[in-house]
Fold this sequence. Notes:
Elements: E1 3-7, H1 12-23, E2 28-32, H2 45-50, E3 58-61, E4 64-67, H3 69-79, H4 90-107, H5 113-122, H6 125-149, H7 164-178, H8 187-197, H9 200-205
Parallel strand pairs: 1-2
Antiparallel strand pairs: 1-3, 3-4
Amino acid sequence: MPVILYSYFRSSAAYRVRIALNLKKIDYEIRPVHLLKNGGDQFKADYLALNPQGKVPVLVVQNTVLTQSAAIIEYLEEVYPLPPLLPSDAEERAYVRSLAQIIACDIHPLNNLRVLNYLKDSLKYEFQQAWRLHWIQEGFTALEQLLQKSDSRGRFCFGDTPGMADVFLIPQVYNARRFECEMNSFPLISGIYENCMQGTAFANAAPENQPDAES
């Protein structure tokens, strides 16, 4: 049975999973879930039956329904171990996961669609933009410092092979650029982004290359 990914082209969380699937060369079928049109496909009964949270992504593998991008990516790492997204050493794995979780836990949740929709109803645009940029810049400042101190940084967050930290980082950089975040203060992050986007796994996962992409 095919691997099915319920995805929205601009969703950072779905973007992460697309990158991981591509890096592991797993064939998958995308089923678009439009988060904005007609009140949002994610709130339709058939989708809520898959994911009661009404979020993307959802990955279906042999009738098993998986939700939450970090859990999905960890699952892929366990079930499809090659190429690995995590190093073999326990301390190094913890370091890579810490980079990923700065994005997944501390930056992205404060700028996801639910929060932005709430801000849209509560704050003027300039305050919404200040909110977005504050959390991105705070998180990227910490990430940049951690990368700068690390002896294991190479062309990517960890070494010269893309891994889990890059899977989480690239969608967040995409969002930062989309929100016009000034990136000159983050040269290491920017360099890693450029290196990643030279690879087909990252390029093919980009929002503009999705079947549901909109201009």
